[in-house]
């Protein structure tokens, strides 16, 4: 597609390096342009996020995630990402440029593909996807539009914009992500994705390649989503009778409604697809049909050997028609026996040549240099043991080795191979060993008090994998900000602590303070707490309070030690009301006796008298009044001072 000449990006130099040449495609999140990397003098594809999304942190994070996810993969069936950055208002990423078409374009032009073509494309897709799953990445948006078919024959997966690290369950967020026609039942029903969700999408693509149609259709997206959630994908042969039963089984296995009934990951499905391909090839050979090559030269009617390149015709996945099938039977020779001894010998020689050639082709593709092997896993083995395994498969192991950090394999052992294990390669292909350097060290970033989204980005930059957040009530940290960071054992991780790349950590995020229920009735307090996910239980000993009426709630206390989290129960402490005491009646007593009596009751005494100290113990100058008056009830704590009045 050619972009309009009014596109302001055409001809622009991005980040001082990438000269935009033309428009390639436009999606919901970004536009892709063909550009020239003027530093390395090569063509690249530059994906630029739409300007109106620049202020949307969620889209920007997803855009950056695409670069990070793809950059972690180095596989022949995954589109390479070279660079990522920010130019003026928009984020961009630079990818490998692959001139060609997408699988969607191919399906639109040809409709259903042959099982052999489906096999080639499926093996390539699963090879790249297996590398992603091994790296802990779930693609989450597999569809024909994201499968690229290059002009030179390469097949690659692209667009990791929705990719996420694969935990036990990877949540999609606030809404369903991905194209509805390829969403697994668990994504539709629960918004949860893992490696088996990618397998479901591959199964739908296999169905579409074999039949030229998607299994579920509807006028509205929700109609299609409902079918994914409630109906089983039919066998492809119900729409295309030419589909072998083995392909029906593969599609039904990959698209099982229950994730537990599907292959665990792309590697498991790839191994079965490869094995099915071998079985079908063997079955065709046993019945005399040739899977990949057809010798179409008829037996000559003149005494001359066939010459030129017209003696062979390549047919992928086909069976020769009667008009082109080689004449190899004894009856065919007998029909020509009457034409002379010389012609008979020539015919016999031709038949022998054809038989020898067929046998040679069989050896070439079965056990010779033209055969293929699936690279076995040597992960965790020593270098010498790994070399023995691979050479035993007929592969050539490079003398030099690569090194890479690995979160699971001990340093010095084999972490993997290049190409990756499970890849289907030619016999005698060169394979390099990747030796583990152990876990890559990193340090815990200081993220306490930061908003959750910013904290996750900081953790990703430091090489950590962050799981689902744990919510906690905290009156000192703003709602939505990080309270603590926990390791896999639930212990707190301090900023600057030593750790390793790939470590899974858990964010503890504040949901604000526990609701203030002081002075509320028990019912009102329980309702307020329930609205925030807490259960209020009356308990503990009631306490006096001069401000809260008897029977109302004084405060909330945690049950046991540790923080309070949504779903917890808390204790409601109830008020006994004000704690009152009665002022003693000391009117008529001597000043000293009155003061002693009041002080015994815990009151502070102020004297209002003109009686000399020497006469204050005499009944001649008795107490005339007190303030507050005797018999008055006052707070026990704090008790008010009592003013004693005695005048001549």
Automatic annotation (TrEMBL):
Residues 623-648 are annotated as: Disordered. It catalyses: L-threonyl-[protein] + ATP = O-phospho-L-threonyl-[protein] + ADP + H(+); L-seryl-[protein] + ATP = O-phospho-L-seryl-[protein] + ADP + H(+). One of its GO terms (biological process) is negative regulation of fatty acid biosynthetic process. InterPro entries: Kinase-like_dom_sf (IPR011009), PASTA_dom (IPR005543), Prot_kinase_dom (IPR000719), Ser/Thr_kinase_AS (IPR008271). It is an enzyme of class 2 (transferase). Its EC number is 2.7.11.1. Keywords: ATP-binding, Kinase, Membrane, Nucleotide-binding, Serine/threonine-protein kinase, Transferase, Transmembrane, Transmembrane helix. Residues 370-437, 508-576, 577-648 form the PASTA domain. PROSITE patterns: PASTA (PS51178), PROTEIN_KINASE_DOM (PS50011), PROTEIN_KINASE_ST (PS00108). GO terms for molecular function: ATP binding; protein serine/threonine kinase activity. The keyword Amino-acid biosynthesis does not apply. The keyword Transferase applies. Residues 18-274 form the Protein kinase domain. SUPFAM superfamilies: Protein kinase-like (PK-like). The chain crosses the membrane at residues 345-365. This is non-specific serine/threonine protein kinase. It comes from Microcella pacifica.
């Amino acid at each position: 597609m050619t972009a309009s000449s009014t596109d302001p990006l055409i001809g622009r130099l991005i980040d001082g390096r990438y000269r935009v040449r033309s428009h390639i495609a436009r999606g919901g999140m970004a536009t892709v342009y063909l550009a020239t990397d003027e530093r390395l003098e090569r063509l690249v594809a530059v994906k630029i996020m739409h300007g109106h999304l620049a202020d949307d942190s969620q889209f920007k994070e997803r855009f950056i995630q695409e670069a990070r996810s793809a950059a972690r993969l180095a596989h022949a069936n995954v589109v390479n990402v070279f660079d990522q950055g920010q130019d003026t208002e928009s984020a961009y990423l630079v990818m490998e440029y692959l001139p060609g078409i997408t699988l969607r374009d191919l399906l639109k032009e040809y409709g259903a593909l042959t099982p052999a073509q489906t096999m080639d494309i499926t093996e390539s897709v699963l090879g790249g996807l297996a590398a992603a799953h091994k790296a802990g990445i779930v693609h989450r948006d597999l569809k024909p539009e994201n499968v690229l078919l290059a002009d030179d024959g390469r097949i690659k997966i692209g667009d990791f914009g929705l990719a996420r690290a694969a935990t036990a369950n990877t949540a999609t967020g606030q809404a369903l992500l991905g194209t509805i026609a390829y969403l697994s039942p668990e994504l539709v029903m629960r918004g949860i994705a893992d490696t088996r969700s990618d397998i479901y999408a591959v199964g739908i693509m296999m169905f579409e390649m074999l039949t030229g149609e998607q299994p579920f259709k509807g006028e509205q997206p929700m109609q299609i989503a409902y079918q994914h959630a409630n109906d089983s994908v039919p066998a492809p042969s119900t729409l295309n009778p030419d589909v072998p039963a083995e392909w029906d089984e593969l599609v039904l296995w990959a698209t099982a409604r229950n994730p537990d009934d599907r292959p665990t990951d792309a590697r498991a499905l790839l191994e079965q697809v490869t094995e099915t391909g071998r079985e079908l090839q063997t079955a065709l050979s046993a019945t005399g049909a040739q899977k990949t090559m057809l010798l179409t030269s008829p037996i000559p009617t003149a005494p001359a050997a066939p010459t030129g390149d017209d003696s062979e015709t390549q047919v992928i996945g086909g069976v020769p028609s009667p008009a082109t099938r080689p004449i190899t039977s004894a009856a065919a020779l007998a029909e020509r026996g009457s034409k002379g001894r010389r012609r008979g010998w020539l015919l016999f020689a031709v038949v022998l040549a054809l038989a020898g050639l067929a046998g040679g082709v069989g050896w070439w593709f079965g056990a010779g240099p033209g055969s293929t092997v699936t690279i076995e896993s040597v992960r965790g083995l020593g270098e010498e043991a790994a070399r023995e395994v691979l050479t035993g498969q007929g592969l050539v192991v490079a003398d030099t080795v690569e090194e890479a950090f690995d979160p699971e394999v001990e340093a010095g052992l084999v972490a993997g191979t290049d190409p990756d294990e499970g890849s289907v390669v030619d016999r005698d292909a060169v394979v390099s060993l990747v030796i583990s350097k152990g876990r890559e060290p990193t340090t815990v970033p200081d993220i306490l008090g930061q908003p959750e989204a910013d904290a996750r980005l900081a953790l990703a930059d430091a090489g950590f994998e962050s799981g689902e957040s744990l919510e906690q009530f905290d009156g000192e940290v703003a709602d939505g900000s990080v309270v603590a960071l926990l390791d896999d054992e639930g212990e707190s991780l301090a900023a600057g602590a030593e750790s390793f790349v790939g470590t899974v950590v858990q964010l503890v995020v504040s949901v604000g303070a526990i609701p203030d229920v002081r002075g509320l009735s028990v019912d009102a307090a329980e309702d307020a707490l329930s609205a925030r996910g807490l259960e209020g239980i009356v308990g503990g000993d009631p306490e006096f309070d001069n401000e809260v009426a008897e029977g109302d709630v004084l405060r909330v206390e945690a049950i046991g030690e540790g923080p309070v989290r949504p779903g917890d129960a808390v204790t409601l402490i109830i008020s006994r009301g004000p704690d009152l005491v009665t002022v003693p009646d000391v009117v008529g007593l001597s000043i000293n006796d009155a003061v002693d009596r009041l002080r015994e009751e815990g009151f502070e005494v102020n004297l209002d008298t003109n009686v000399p100290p020497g006469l204050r113990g005499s009944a001649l100058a008795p107490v005339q009044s007190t303030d507050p008056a005797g018999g008055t009830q006052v707070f026990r704590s704090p008790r008010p001072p009592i003013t004693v009045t005695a005048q001549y």
